[in-house]
Amino acid sequence: MKKYLFLFFFLLFSLSAEVINLIPSVSGVLQDVDLDGNFDIVFIVDLIDSQESAGLENRAVFEYDISSIVPGSIINSATVNINETSDPVFGNTNLFGYAGDGVIDVGDAVRTDAFIGNIANGTVDLQITDVTAFIQSLVDNNDPFASFVVDNENLDVIYQFQGTTAGLETELVIDFTAPAVPEPSTYILLLILSIFCFRSRFKNNKTNK
Ligand SMILES: [Ca+2]
Ligand SMILES: [Ca+2]
Ligand SMILES: [Ca+2]
Ligand SMILES: [Ca+2]
């Protein structure tokens, strides 16, 4: 009987990893039309860019709904896979993360809460960036949206990529393990099994006397 109980508990608490590929709920470009550091215009567009010129600055923003990942989950790995269409050959293009709300507004341009890294390498490719620690912190805080800002620091070069263009989306790929939450029926089964176990032990004791 002991070995069945062991098996039962093993099944009850065994955990399995799951991988989800998310596409942005929304993507857009935020523009500062007079370079005063306050962003003025929101463009909700699929193809997004980050650039600076003598007269204006653009920053790309995109937000993912991660509410399907329950608090207590362990993030085994997470990457943002950016589908570039233009990658400058010099200078930094910085990726920042923040806890979003599923809507893009001008304030999102300066949400440089978590610096993730420079994502430009001078080659137009699929830029894969590790964001495991950032996603874990959002899940731990029960934040429903994982959001990102791209801030290109260089004059007269453009970093451009697909935000939500169908089939070419910039994906957030998360491998996670959810905490074990037994179903109510599992508890009933456990109770029946315990009673059965107790009865058979009681019988054995009587027989031995
Ligand atoms: Ca402005
Ligand atoms: Ca937002
Ligand atoms: Ca690149
Ligand atoms: Ca910039």
TrEMBL record:
Keyword Membrane: yes
Highest rank taxon of the organism: Bacteria
Protein name as annotated: PEP-CTERM protein-sorting domain-containing protein
TM region(s), chain numbering: 185-202
Species per Swiss-Prot/TrEMBL record: Uabimicrobium amorphum
Keyword field: Membrane, Transmembrane, Transmembrane helix
Record NCBIfam families: PEP_CTERM (TIGR02595)
